[in-house]
Amino acid sequence: MEKSVETIRGDSEGIAYEFALYRISGTSSEAPSAYIQAALHGDELPGVVAIDALMPKLRKAENEGRVRGNVTIVPRANPIGANQLLFGASQGRFDLGTRVNYNRDFPLLDRPDTALLPGDEVPMSSDRRLKARLLKLSLGHDIVLDLHCDDEGVAYLYVPDELWPAMADCAANMGVDAVILWSGQSGSSFDEASLHPYLKMPRKEARLESRVVTTVEYRGVSDVYATVAEADAQGLYRLLVARGVIEDTWIETQKTFAGVVAPIDHIEMVPAPCAGAILYHVNPGDTVKAGAHIATIVRAAGEDGGRVEVLAPQDGFILTRRSHRATRAGDDLVKLVGVAPSSDARTGALEA
Ligand SMILES: [Zn+2]
Q1: What span is annotated as the signal peptide, if there is one (predicted)?
Q2: Ligand 1 centre distance from Cα of residue 8 (Å)
Q3: Where are the beta strands (DSSP E) in the chain?
Q4: How far is the CA of 108 from the centre of ligand 1 (A)?
Q5: Cα(352) to centroid of ligand 1, in Å?
Q6: Hey, which residues does 347 pair with through a beta bridge?
Q7: Per-residue confidence band for 306, with pLDDT thresholds at 50, 70 and 90
Q8: Are residues 160 and 307 in the same domain?
Q9: Ligand 1 center to residue 38 CA distance, Å?
Q10: The domain spanning residue 109 has which CATH number?
């Protein structure tokens, strides 16, 4: 395994950002290659600790000559966002300088050619420079995994429509609970930018049936535990074995996914009807019936009628909920995966 350090020039003289990059050269040029990054949103750490737990397995496989395909790992993809604090609170989601989400506005290329990406000499802000660099590092890999997390939630994947059900084995081997299928545009998120050049190619050349591109939501932002990280690392490792990047005859891989699968327009982003304190009655992973109590909003503490009940708009599965307990009117309280399309389905990306 080779370590190198990538440098991103900052927005003023004397400022630069660095992140580590690890590469293993596979023994076969025919084998699929894999790229894994975590913490594109600078303060999302479940993927970082999963990679930390994965690395010893990769080193062992490499020492035993079992890594067939090239593997590239970026454990912390966003040093700019990781360094942003506002009055002590992490601000890893949006670039404070440009107000742009770190997982939006990636360059959409017409073919998988890094020469199309802006070089370091092009004058642009550091967040855009970072996005171009990450895309450059990931482009050309058959498997591209972008590890994120939600507020509080189960483990789930966003998978482009074009790659499903061919990616069902990935979901099964990773051990996630749910898969959300999306198509079209998602604001040029990293996964969209990773797949886009291949969708422009003739289908035969694009080899979509063997391509893996996914945004992985490793539960909630505070789900950072050694045991969970180890289980997630095993899931990532199983995927790499299943797809032939790594050889390991001891590992049992799976082909069929038994979890929840739904198109993105089935997600109900149930909003709060008023401001107040949230009392949740459901946990991520729960199944609910239409009309079930999802939450109570304490709008006016102690007053008659000061509580407002929030009900499930349809039967479904609780994918996520908020980690904070104060809400404004209209803020989303949960992502509920409905059995039918949502009546106010939103197009494009949700929040990843
Ligand atoms: Zn994220």
Answers
A1: none
A2: 20
A3: 2-9, 16-24, 34-38, 71-74, 85-86, 89-90, 143-150, 152-153, 155-160, 178-182, 212-220, 260-263, 267-271, 276-280, 287-288, 293-298, 307-311, 316-321, 326-327, 332-338
A4: 19
A5: 5
A6: none
A7: very high
A8: no
A9: 9
A10: 3.40.630.10
Report the C-alpha gap between 160 and 192 in whole angstroms. 8
- Please report which confidence band the pLDDT of residue 86 belongs to, taking 50, 70 and 90 as the band edges: very high
Give the per-residue pLDDT at 351: 62
Distance CA 48, CA 229 (A): 9
Residues comprising the chain, all counted: 352
- What spacing in Å lies between the alpha carbon of 208 and ligand 1's midpoint? 25
CA distance linking residue 272 with residue 283, whole number of Å: 17
pLDDT of residue 344: 78
320 lies in which domain range?
A: 264-338
How many CB atoms sit inside 10 A of residue 231's CB?
15
Last residue within a domain, chosen from 208, 225, 258: 258
How far apart are the CA of 43 and the centre of ligand 1, in A? 8
> Are the C-beta atoms of residues 335 and 267 closer than 8 Å to each other?
yes
- The answer on pLDDT for 352 being more than 60 is no
Do the bridges between strand 71-74 and strand 34-38 make them parallel or antiparallel, or are there none, so unpaired?
parallel
Q: What distances in angstroms separate CA 226 from CA 74, 84, 251, 323, one per listed residue?
A: 19, 26, 21, 20
Which residues on adjacent β-strands are paired with residue 318?
336
Ligand 1 centroid – CA 41 distance (Å): 5
CB 120 within 8 A of CB 9: yes
Dist. CA 262 → ligand 1 center (Å): 20
